[in-house]
Amino acid sequence: MFVTKPRLFLAYVFENRFAVPSFNVSNLEMARAVIEAAELENAPVMVQTDFINFDYAGIDELSAIIRTLAEKAAAPVLMHQDHPGKDENIFRTLRRGYPSVMYDGGHLPLAENIAGTARFAEAAHAVGAILETEIGQFGGEYQGGHTVTAAAHDTAEMVQKGGADTLAVSVGSMHGQKSRLDLDLLSNIAKATRIPLVLHGGSGIHPDDIKVATELNVYKVNIGAALIRGFVEGLEEAAKLPTDWEPRHQQMLRYVTNKLRDIARHRLSLFRASGHGKKLLEQLATAKDDLAERVTRS
Ligand SMILES: [Zn+2]
To answer: Which domains does the chain have, with CATH numbers?
Structure first.
């Protein structure tokens, strides 16, 4: 199912205290692998695209591929726009029907970040989409190497004034690198915000920390690097395979897709998303409208 009621999706995950991996994809094979993984795990999944993915594949092309696969899927698939690169890309993705988008203002002074968040929260909500915003920076390959840790009091102010539905917080994870989380800080942020939280740089977070994080309001964990590595390693392995009945390029990409599907299944299971797919599908199918209010923990 291509999910069009993002707050219901969010509320289900938040209430059941697990996390959904949000996989970055840039081609048909990656999108197919993660959606098939969700079907096999009976799990909800998020599929996301950032500006680097768009530069490679094109917004229209990539969103059409994801939507087509999601519409046929026996699992709930929420399509999300990750780091937009430029603000105007948020309008572009909203126009193409993304039910969930991110405003990328973590590098700005807090007041500017809040003002930008409020602007795009209004735009997203006007078309029934939800907005993720960011406090701090996750560094690594995509943010110039610098990590800026979130401050709990900033996150409270952001939630109060910014109006975003979810908040990505930098509490130790880094884009593309191994990490341990500052769980005390995450706990303080959870108390200060009470809305669903997001972690970027999810590929390298220690599995024990992910488990605790889901108890501390984290509902979405971004997975980019693990699929990139899997894709490249898969191609190298596939190049050494003996030829079979299939044209060589298809044989290789099929091998890669299967490898990525296993990687995605492992993450779905690790984040305890497995087993929730059908129940959430039913709720999404029977609800007439999406929730009107932001999802919060009382
Ligand atoms: Zn990120």
So the answer is: 6-225+271-286 (3.20.20.70)
Per-residue pLDDT of the chain (298 residues; tens, 9 = 90+): 999 999 999 999 999 999 999 999 999 999 999 999 999 999 999 999 999 999 999 999 999 999 999 999 999 999 999 999 999 999 999 999 999 999 999 999 999 999 999 999 999 999 999 999 999 888 876 666 677 888 888 999 999 999 999 999 999 999 889 999 999 999 999 999 999 999 999 999 999 999 999 999 999 999 999 999 999 999 999 999 999 999 999 999 999 999 999 999 999 999 999 999 999 999 999 999 999 999 999 8
224 Cα: distance to centroid of ligand 1 (angstroms) = 9
Extract the runs of DSSP E, i.e. beta strands, from the chain. Answer: 20-24, 45-49, 77-81, 100-102, 130-135, 137-138, 147-148, 166-169, 197-199, 218-223
pTM: 0.96
**How far, in Å, is the centroid of ligand 1 from the Cα of 247?**
37
Q: What CA–CA distances, in Å, run from 129 to 88, 97, 164, 277?
A: 16, 9, 11, 21
Give the residue numbers marked as catalytic. 82
> Residues with Cβ within 5 Å of ion ligand 1?
200
CA of 136 to the centre of ligand 1 (A): 11
Distance in Å, CA 135 to ligand 1 centroid: 11
CA distance 118 to 137: 19
Span from the CA of 137 to the centroid of ligand 1 (angstroms)? 8
